[in-house]
Write a structure and sequence with these properties.
single chain; mainly alpha; two-stranded antiparallel ribbon; 11 helices; flat; disordered N terminus
């Protein structure tokens, strides 16, 4: 099932980068007001996460490009229906650029049969395989972005706890999501401080600019370690312990959500089998 990890490492790397980049970019570009407008959600968050996970795995295993393209189009339609298309498209920019870059690289350097376009020559096999990767990245990123903009952070963490994800991973995820913006704001402060001291001059050469970025990165990492120690001590002073047990129980799934999850999962597996039989 996971044969692409050994036979298709480039695709695995691209998909992984697209996933996490989309999530991080979404944290920077997310707008709480736009998320608050979405009040018509009727699907349980646990079903959304399960279906999204299965759909992403299925997309990475598909051998034909048209199924991922259809999935991406459906995600765009859902974003239009819930009036979040602007936020959705903002988060889709980076994965789309990355997918186009992979398509260009595959078309220019992979294959045997050349196609002369006048200015440049491309390979037919590279175009076919590159467009397949493009469709996979686009569909996977679309599913993940749609999940991010329709589910809150608390719902995501509670769903992870319900699925039996180790508590350590849940706590780390909670800390990371809370301090990504803090990390970004600290970086902006350091850059502004260096600019006020005549750093980042437009007349500086590449080596000088690299030194400026390196100095900011080092100071930012040092501040991050110091801030983490302060937060850890503050949490201990408020009664938090690493082995603290949570008494909050998740509500069980109702029959409607269970049936919806079973039907959606069956449809995804059927689509994957149909793609393999074509």
């Amino acid at each position: 099932m996971l044969e692409w990890l050994t036979r298709d490492p480039l695709n695995g790397i691209v998909i992984t980068i697209a996933f996490f980049s989309s999530l991080i970019i979404g944290r920077y570009l997310g707008n709480k007001k736009e998320k608050a407008k979405y009040n018509g959600k009727t699907i349980d968050s646990r079903i959304e996460i399960l279906v999204s996970f299965l759909l992403i795995i299925a997309v990475t295993l598909m051998k034909h490009w048209y199924f991922p393209i259809v999935i991406a189009a459906l995600c765009i339609g859902i974003a239009l229906k819930i009036n979040l298309i602007r936020d959705y498209l903002k988060k889709l920019v980076f994965p789309l650029v990355l997918a186009l870059f992979i398509l260009a690289v595959q078309g220019l350097f992979y294959g045997v049969n050349k196609i002369d376009l006048g200015i440049i020559s491309v390979y037919a096999e590279g175009i076919d395989y590159g467009f397949l990767i493009f469709a996979r990245v686009l569909a996977s990123a679309s599913v993940l972005i749609l999940l991010v903009i329709t589910i809150s952070e608390n719902e995501l963490l509670e769903s992870m706890r319900w699925f039996g994800v180790p508590k350590t991973i849940i706590e780390i995820s909670s800390f990371m999501s809370r301090y990504i913006k803090t990390f970004s704001s600290e970086g902006k402060k350091l850059k502004q401080a260096q600019e006020s001291r005549c750093g980042f001059s437009r007349n500086a050469n590449f080596t000088k600019q690299a030194q400026n970025i390196a100095s900011i990165s080092g100071a930012l990492i040092t501040r991050a370690f110091a801030r983490s120690e302060e937060v850890y001590r503050a949490m201990l002073s408020r009664g938090w312990k690493p082995d603290l047990k949570y008494s909050i129980d998740c509500q069980p799934l109702n029959k409607r959500d269970m049936i919806l999850g079973i039907l959606s999962s069956s449809g995804i597996f059927a689509m994957l089998v149909f793609d393999r039989l074509l």
